[in-house]
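Encode chain A's predicted structure.
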Amino acid sequence: MTNARTRVGNAVPRVVRSVQGWTPHRPRLAGAAMGLGAATVLVGCGLANAVTAHGRLPVQVSLVVVSAAVVLGLPVVVAPPEKRMLAMVLCLVVLVIAVPAGFRDAVLSVRGERTPATVTGITRSEKPLTGGDRYECTIRLPDGRETFVDGKEVCTTSTRVGDRVRVYTDPHDLVTAKAKAPTITFPVLGTVVAVATLLLVVVTSRSVGRGRRAP
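Encoded structure for chain A:
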């Protein structure tokens, strides 16, 4: 087992060096394709995350793994200069965060309804980054559907099973409920995604084009 782990550990740096040493015939075009491909994957994972939230844990875990691989792998493969590295990471993080959260808001801004609901369950967990308690409530809507909601507006330490709350819900149940009124629209989300994708494409194109000249 130790030997196997050692071989895998030695293989990873070799693979990274091999990829970094790859010299495409059209470096800028290859870099642009890498940036566009990374953005497409992150947008796809973000949309899938938004519509499968609380539904299928294996799917959620797979989406997180794929997104993390892109965010961590692209800067290693492209190896841009420091300033471009910061811009690249910023674009990747924006896509990871903005797409799932923004898509839910955008859907609710179009067809969301302010709906009364009854709390049927409360789950307490620890915030992964900042620490402290995080509460998530299972709620039952008037039509019998159950969904989830978090946020200090409706789900706190004082919330109890049986409490009545009001939330924003999607009548077609595409996205989960939200305590606050949606603030992001589809035009805003589209603009953010387009700008982040364009900047990512430019950064990867120039980085690959500058660092890997075909002989």
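Residues 21 and 212 are 8 Å apart (CA to CA).
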